[in-house]
Write a structure and sequence with these properties.
With about 220 residues, the protein is an all-alpha fold. The protein has a single domain, classed as Four Helix Bundle (Hemerythrin (Met), subunit A), CATH 1.20.120.1630. It is about 65% helix and about 0% strand. It is built from 9 helices and 2 strands; from the N terminus they run H-H-H-E-H-H-E-H-H-H-H. Strands 1-2 form a two-stranded antiparallel sheet. Helix 1 (about 5-25) runs antiparallel to helix 3, helix 6 packs antiparallel against helix 7 and helix 8 (about 180-200) crosses helix 9. This is Isoprenylcysteine carboxylmethyltransferase family protein. It is found in: Membrane. It is a multi-pass membrane protein. Keywords: Membrane, Transmembrane, Transmembrane helix.
């Protein structure tokens, strides 16, 4: 899908601004890039950001929106900013660090894999994917592929990539920050499913009955 210049600018500048947080947390550009795992983290982040530009996702309120769920975005914003800075700072001072370099690379792998899982559903849904809990014009259910097994693959990717990010800095505090993201994420899932149920009725109930929310066989 062809991106708009505005979306490309917003995505890339926002990503670069966010990456300034861990670089500051690690004490500057040279110290941050002194380890190849952190360099890999930046490369993966920029690659995902460039791919996201072509995904077709948006932040439109569409035809119907659950505005009461917008508090979740604020919660993610605060926790995201903390996760951007605190794990890197913890890594630099050696506070509550988990293991060593092996954990860094496990984190990078989880971050990359989770990022791909986060992004693939956006490509599948295209303009139907919004950063808000909303029904878009011409909205239809997707019930095949990833969506034939789990209903929220992008949210699963979000959790995996968030965990990978903090583990790349070996941060025990970062793991706690990731866990704190789960309650607002579950609130968003409940709001989204309620909206889809009201929009698609029996079709969505049947789909819901034969799939898992995020983890097959568990949840």
């Amino acid at each position: 899908m062809r991106p708009t210049p505005g979306m490309a600018f917003f995505t890339l500048t926002g990503t670069l601004a966010y990456l300034a947080l861990p670089i500051l947390g690690w004490g500057g550009i040279a110290p941050f890039f002194a380890h190849p795992a952190r360099t890999a983290l930046i490369i993966v982040t920029m690659a995902l950001a460039v791919a996201a530009i072509f995904s077709g996702g948006n932040i439109s309120s569409g035809e119907r929106e659950d505005r009461g769920n917008r508090w979740v975005l604020a919660a993610f914003g605060v926790l995201g900013l903390l996760a951007g800075y605190v794990p890197a700072w913890n890594d630099r001072i050696g506070f509550w660090a988990i293991d060593g370099d092996t954990m860094r690379w496990i984190g990078v792998a989880l971050y990359a894999g989770g990022g791909v899982l986060r992004l693939v559903p956006v490509f599948i849904l295209g303009r139907r994917f919004s950063g808000l809990v909303a029904i878009q014009p011409g909205h239809t259910l997707v019930t095949t592929g990833l969506y034939g097994v789990i209903r929220h693959p992008s949210y699963l990717g979000f959790v995996v990539s968030s965990l990978g990010w903090v583990l790349a800095f070996r941060s025990g505090v970062g793991v706690i920050l990731t866990l704190l993201m789960i309650p607002p994420l579950l609130a968003r899932i409940r709001a989204e499913e309620a909206l889809l149920r009201s929009q698609f009725g029996a079709e969505y109930e049947a789909y819901r009955a034969r799939t898992w929310k995020m983890v097959p066989g568990f949840y």
